[in-house]
Amino acid sequence: MAGSSTSYYFVIIGTKDNPLYEAEFGSFKQGGDGIPKFREEQRHMNQFIAHSSLDCIEDQQWASKEMYLKTVDKFNNTWVSCFLTGGNIKFLLVHDTRSDEPIRQFFADVYDLYCKTLMNPFYEVNMAIRSQTFDQKIKAAAKKYL
Amino acid sequence: MFLFRLRSSRVFSLAVTMVVYAVLILNKAGGLIYQRDFNPGLQKLSSNDYLILAGTFHGVHAITSQISPTNETSSSGLEVLESENFVMRCFQTLTGTKFLIFAEPRQQNLDVVVRRVYELYADYVMKNPFYQIEMPIRSEGFDRHLTSYIKPHQ
Amino acid sequence: MSSTSRARLGEEVWKLRTDKINAELVTLTYGSVVAQLCKDLDGDYAEVNKQLDKMGYNIGLRLIEDFLAKSNMQQKCANFRDTADVISKVGFKMFLNITPTIVNWSSDNKQFSLLFDENPLADFVELPDDGKAQSDLWYSNMLCGVIRGALEMVQMSVDAHFVSDVLRGNDTTEMRINLIRYIEDEMPQDDE
């Protein structure tokens, strides 16, 4: 596990549990350099952790009226936070430190960018998001909040 | 003489009269695409007669747009025809369509009426994607709105 | 009619005599038309362009009457430069609330370009990444058809086509309009 700087693994999951977009960031706060510091095994684990949290999300999604479900799962020292859109698209963030408010703001930005992607007539729901602009803007949002 | 009181929220003590006898619309080639009588006052013609009337008027309009009694270089063609029984106003759009309004002799503001008829045509006839341009107009919406504009209480 | 009074007329018709509709609805509707055409025609973008132009042509034939009725234009334009001005300041303003800039007049005054700094039809659009769309598809080609149809109804035969598009990665979105000839019918309006 990384030392003092935190790293994040972010993935967007479609309605069929298929990943549409994934990214890793390191924190820029407290002198962090923004580069994710996951060990090799940890990177594979991130995907499993995210995947297994989908069950927890399904349990919790009808209990809350909010789209932001906060932290839905915990595995050893890693937390999984989730934002669930009305179209059943899940934004998952795997992280090792708890922080509610910045993550909420980050998800709000991601949601905005996702809506804009949906407006593109050539993009269909559940298609992988390959746009460079989307990628750059997600990384900028991560830099801003995380 | 028919008198119609226009209902409105503003206080109007005068009655506004609008007695339009008939509306004709001619396409670019001079063919009749719409004919409707609203108030009695004109002689009833057969549909063939109306076609001939339209074609004749189209020719006359063409001639009058090329000659002019004054020294003007460009003439707009026949615009108003007055007789003791009716007045006729012709409005030709930049696309070549002609609107003929027949009304009672002392009817004023006919150009406002013509403009409104043109607006209704642009809305209910042209915006219907199934209407074939230059063909006779068979639009229920156009008929309805035109009637309620020209004869508001009937 | 001077250029500023045309701008004012355009503004006035847009504000007072036009019903408004949600912009996203227009963008999404146009977008789904283009996307469906691309699917139906199997990625033959040249054919998609042609179909968009045809649809625009049918729209233009009808739109011109609405334009003339609402804007109350009674006089014909004196020359093609006037036509360009009216298209930009009154036409586009009335229907899309944009005023493209007129540039690049040819020396014989028969060709000009419209520069679009905003294009409501193409908001949020990114062309598909299949290698052909970026070089073959003119996304807003319907606008070219609209101009061609509308001007044909007022006796002008023109050719309109896009020469650059920001969706394709170019710096500007530019449409070139070229007057082919005035359509004289059997009774010319002026005494030439």
Automatic annotation (TrEMBL), chain A:
SUPFAM superfamilies named in the record: SNARE-like (SSF64356)
InterPro entries: Longin-like_dom_sf, Sedlin
Top-level taxon: Eukaryota
Pfam families: Sedlin_N (PF04628)
GO biological process: endoplasmic reticulum to Golgi vesicle-mediated transport
Alphabetical list of CDD domains matching this protein: TRAPPC2_sedlin
Name of the protein this chain belongs to: Trafficking protein particle complex subunit
Highest classification ranks of the organism: Eukaryota, Fungi, Dikarya, Ascomycota, Pezizomycotina
TrEMBL record, chain B:
The keyword Endoplasmic reticulum appears for this protein: yes
Primary location: endoplasmic reticulum
Top-rank lineage group of the source organism: Eukaryota
Gene Ontology CC entries for this record: endoplasmic reticulum; Golgi apparatus; TRAPP complex
Entry keyword set: Endoplasmic reticulum, ER-Golgi transport, Golgi apparatus, Transport
Pfam families in UniProt: Sybindin (PF04099)
Record carries keyword DNA damage: no
Segments crossing the lipid bilayer: none
SMART domains associated with the record: Sybindin
GO terms for biological process, alphabetical: endoplasmic reticulum to Golgi vesicle-mediated transport
InterPro entries: Longin-like_dom_sf, TRAPPC
Location in the cell: Endoplasmic reticulum; Golgi apparatus, cis-Golgi network; Golgi apparatus
Family, similarity comment: Belongs to the TRAPP small subunits family. TRAPPC4 subfamily.
Subunit-structure text: Part of the multisubunit transport protein particle (TRAPP) complex.
PANTHER family membership: TRAFFICKING PROTEIN PARTICLE COMPLEX SUBUNIT, TRAFFICKING PROTEIN PARTICLE COMPLEX SUBUNIT 4
Protein name per UniProt: Trafficking protein particle complex subunit
Protein species of origin: Arthrobotrys flagrans (Nematode-trapping fungus)
UniProtKB/TrEMBL annotation, chain C:
The keyword Lipid metabolism is annotated on this UniProt entry: no
Biological processes annotated in GO: Golgi vesicle transport; macroautophagy
Domain of life of the organism encoding this protein: Eukaryota
Gene3D superfamilies, per database record: Trafficking protein particle complex subunit 3 (3.30.1380.20)
Location of this chain's protein in the cell: Endoplasmic reticulum; Golgi apparatus, cis-Golgi network
Pfam families referenced in this protein's UniProt entry, alphabetically: TRAPP
GO cellular component labels: endoplasmic reticulum; Golgi apparatus; TRAPP complex
Keyword Nucleus part of the UniProt annotation: no
SUPFAM superfamilies: Ligand-binding domain in the NO signalling and Golgi transport
InterPro entries reported for this sequence: Bet3, NO_sig/Golgi_transp_ligand-bd, TRAPP_component
Keywords: Endoplasmic reticulum, ER-Golgi transport, Golgi apparatus, Transport
Protein family membership: Belongs to the TRAPP small subunits family. BET3 subfamily.
PANTHER family found in the cross-reference section: TRAFFICKING PROTEIN PARTICLE COMPLEX SUBUNIT 3
Name by which UniProt lists this protein: Trafficking protein particle complex subunit BET3
